[in-house]
Amino acid sequence: MNAVRSLFRNPPLLTFMLVALVWLVAGLTLRGFGAYGHLRYLLELAAVIGIAAAGQTLVILMGGIDLSVGAVITVTAILLPLISPAWDPTGLVGIVLALAIAAGIGFLNGAGAAYLRVPPIIMTLAMATFLQGLLVIVAGGSAVTVSNPAVILLGQARPLGIPAGVILWVVVSAGVLLLIHRMPIGARFLALGANSLATRLSGVSVTRNTLILYALSGFFAGLAGILVLGMNRQGYVGIGDPYLLTSIAAVVLGGTSILGGRGTYAGTIPGAILLVTTTALITVVNASPGWRSIMFGTLILALLLISGREARR
Amino acid sequence: MSTVSSSGWLYGAVQRRRNRGLGGLYLVVAAFLILYAVLFPGILSVGGFSKFTQNWFPLALVTMAQALLMLNGGITLAIGPLVSLGAVIAATTMEGVLGVPGGFLAVAFTGLAIGAVTGAIVAHLRLPAIIVTLAGSFIITGVALILLPRPGGFIPGWLSTALAGHTPVAFLLLVVILVLWKAFLATPLGLGIYAAGDNPVGAFRSGVPVERVKIVSFALSGLLAALAGLFVAAQTGSGDPVIGTPFTLNSIAAAVLGGVGFLGGKGTMRGAICGSLLLSVMINVMFFLGFPPVAQYVAQGLIIVGAVAVPELLGVWRARR
Question: How far, in Å, are A11, A270, A289 from residue A42 at the CA level?
Answer without folding.
Answer: 22, 12, 20
